[in-house]
Amino acid sequence: MQKYNPSDEVDFVVIGSGAAGGVMARQLSQAGFSVVVLEQGGWGAFGHEQDYSKDELSNRYPADVDKLISDPVVQRNTFRRNASEKATPGGHNYGCVVGGGTVTYGASSWRHLPWEFNEASVFGGMAGTGIADWPVSYEEMERYYTLAEWELGISGERVDTPFMAPMSKPYPLPPQPIKSSGALAKLAAGKLGLTVIPNVAAIITEPYKGRGACINCGMCSGYGCQTKSRSSSAVALLPDAVATGKCEIRANCYVREISTDRSGKVTGALYIDKTANNREVFQKAKVVVLSANGTETPRLLLLSKSARFANGLANSSGVVGKYLMSGNGGGASGLFEHPLNEFKGCVTGAAILDFVPNDVKGRGFYGGGRMTARGFTSPIAYGLGGVHGAPTWGVDYKKALIEQANRKMSLSNFISQMPIETNCVDLDPDVKDAWGLPAMRITSTSHPNDMKAVEFFRDKSVEILKAAGAKEVWADAISDSRGGAHSRGTCRMGNDPRTSVVNKFHRAHDVPNLFVIDGSSFVTGGRNHPTMTISALAFRAAEHLAAAAKTGNVKI
Amino acid sequence: MSEDSRRQFLIQSMTGVSAAWLATSWPEIAAAAESSWGAYNGSSTQFAFFTSAQGATVEAMAAQIIPTTDTPGAREAQVIGFIDTALMTFAAGQQAAVKAGLQDLDRRISAMGAASFASLGSAQQIAMLTSIQTTPFFRAIRDLTVMGMFAAPQHGGNFNKVGWKMIGFDDSLNFHTPFGAYDV
Description:
The complex is a heterodimer of chains A (556) and B (184). Chain A has a domain at 176-199 and 329-415 and 447-480: Cholesterol Oxidase, domain 2, CATH 3.30.410. Chain A has 13 helices and 17 strands. Chain A has helices at residues 19-30, 56-60, 119-123, 138-152, 180-192, 233-236, 238-243, 296-303, 360-363, 379-385, 395-405, 448-467, 531-550; strands at residues 10-15, 35-38, 77-80, 88-89, 196-197, 247-250, 253-260, 266-273, 279-290, 332-335, 351-352, 369-375, 408-415, 424-432, 438-443, 472-475, 514-516. In chain A, the strands form 3 sheets. In chain A, strands 1, 2, 6, 7, 8, 9 and 17 form a 7-stranded mixed beta sheet that branches. In chain A, strands 5-11-12-13-10-16 form a 6-stranded antiparallel beta sheet. In chain A, helix 1 (19-30) packs parallel to helix 13 (531-550) and helix 5 crosses helix 12 (448-467). In chain A, 59% of the residues are buried. With 184 residues, chain B is mainly alpha-helical. Chain B has one domain. Chain B contains 8 helices and no strands. Chain B has helices at 3-13, 19-40, 52-65, 79-88, 95-111, 122-131, 136-150, 162-166. The longest helix of chain B is centred in the N-terminal third of the chain and has 22 residues, at 19-40. Chain B starts with a helix and ends in an 18-residue tail after the last helix. Mean pLDDT of chain B is 83; it is low at 1-44. Chains A and B meet through helix 2, helix 5, helix 10 and helix 11 of A and helix 7 and helix 8 of B.
């Protein structure tokens, strides 16, 4: 791998190596620029022929060098429902390894639908929310979705339905097999008139670009892929970046500040090298690309405050960290007569699409979501989580464990959260992380409308499971999000520097050589599978940035 | 097994501990792991964390948490060896709660005039465990029993994959369709 000295002024420092950072590193290095990628997590299996195992206990309690996901005790964070509460220790986490969240994610790779880029214009806004149009349209995005799907390797079925975005080109790979949970969903769909299709996934189902097809091993989401079939940044993007001879990846490097000079331009990134006794290193760069995820990105901007940027870097608007949108769920489970064996194959099964679009009059709430079929996948999690209608130990516990394991199907739903100004990421005034830096504080309460959506999807799940012939059905308890996966919206894009952090090409309104690209860029949430849109935004931003850099527009 | 490969194997089998901690604690871990392996094989009552009396108590508790019925339970899965190793490694943070819980349980057993928890009849054991089931001690043993039943056998429990067989889980590395009864 190419090595640079921290004192060498490289063209780009990219902070984060996940869905967006991987794209930026690959595209910018392939365009001939020098790139240093700083990743706070470890190497994982990057560069190894032998990839991850499916040992559930080791995955649950990994040694430090094997960690794939952040640890809320180390990457400490706090949580509160509203500003009048004192925040208490939170459990928010995110992918934290070379490749970021794409190393362990469920791999769902749905495009936003055209109207998900201009919901304010199409549906009107809603009082108490920050629903606004994106500064980019689906028509502009379409070719970057296609590019991302073909560069990464996405499997799926192009279906002509209003529930899916129109595509100029089919997916490069055929869809994953329909599991028993999907077959049951289809059975119900036949009775209820619903649309069920295989999940669109960043999992290759045939050999593609030198990687082997998925072998349906199971233990998928939450685990590293043992065959490199999940099209993560670590296997589908970063190796190409390294192969250019222009890109250096540095793992275990935790950026604590994006530094600026007197003119207000960024000069590089100051990081803690965890493998060198937490030594502080400053990497000089002409341009900084920030892709640290929807919660760490705003935190780093707030940590990078200075005399000139007293409110946090790139935050003259005051909206850095605000409009946080996390995932919401709500679903149900049912027991069937025969074994489903859901532990085989990818965790995320077939999708029910009919409730993606808005139907405010019909359903009584704004928004929608995607329903997914799934079942029991990991024995320890299953045993610890307990069984329905039984005690947590003893003869009846064991009996229920046996009866329910392979006969259970669940519908898990992915629902958009409204952008609300008071839902935010900021710096905890009291709590510090393991390096003494202010911990991330998450403040979040879903809009009442969103809780109606959760209830709707819970009830709809019960109806579908009954129609599928379940012997017994039970609904999940309703609970509001506490952060976690799919964090978006905290550095929203926009044309107006007073109400947004970055412009339509992800350049910070306040800082000409700072670009912010990841889930934080989202204006509205979409139907809660954000990764494909993050990838497409990054391909678009990289193309623009490379062109701008070549014409001197960012002073390279 | 050579000293180096044995060491490598043991390091790989230790979870939730940092490399630095492993390096400084190596001789103790090796000794502990050796002795707890003896326990799994039934050839020794030497544990790494438990005394032999404590080991007998916890094994009897585990056998009530996942009992032996017409299928094997925690006892046949040799969960006690898993729990003993766990308390020296990834579950070391629960040592104090487990020690305190075992002392408390001993007091209760003595007050009954019994010799040990394991010597109680099954109904008495269930009644005793029901009375402490909300304590951190019981919760720790319950969770470790479940983990020992369902973790990969190389971690000490789930002997002969009896835990996986019980719930119909197959740990094969790859699968072909049809997966289940409904996708044929």
